């Protein structure tokens, strides 16, 4: 998990880029049942590696999951320092897991 100050910087940058309010809820994982038939049911967890977060996307490490009007999945390649993160519609997210405090 990234340090809180790094998460705050990511949130600030993505809020400006996406023009949405992002909630910092400490999300550990989301369970996605996508409306896109090519994408299998997935559990996307911070710190794990995934392929096909979008059609034919490469293997990437998830560094944060954030909540806004949609769920935002930030990887080392997409959203951490630059670029557009992965977005998942709230209707496609069936369960949210939080970090224990």
Instruction: Enumerate the strands of the largest sheet in spatial order, edge to edge or round the barrel.
Output: 3-4-5-6
Write down how many β-strands occur, each being a DSSP E stretch of 2 or more residues.
7
Q: Overall 3D geometry?
A: globular
Could you give the order of the helices and strands?
Answer: HEEEEEEE
- Give average pLDDT, whole number: 90
Write the layout of secondary structure elements.
Layout: H1 4-18, E1 27-32, E2 42-45, E3 49-50, E4 60-67, E5 70-75, E6 86-89, E7 93-98
Description:
This protein is an alpha+beta fold. It is built from 1 helix and 7 strands. It has one helix at 4-18; strands at 27-32, 42-45, 49-50, 60-67, 70-75, 86-89, 93-98. The strands form 2 sheets. The protein has a 4-stranded antiparallel beta sheet with strand order 3-4-5-6, with no helix packed on it. A 3-stranded antiparallel beta sheet has the order 2-1-7, with no helix packed on it. The longest helix has 15 residues, at 4-18. It starts with a helix and ends with a strand. The mean pLDDT is 90.
Sum this structure up briefly.
The protein is α+β, with helices and mostly antiparallel strands. 15% of the residues lie in helices and 36% in strands.
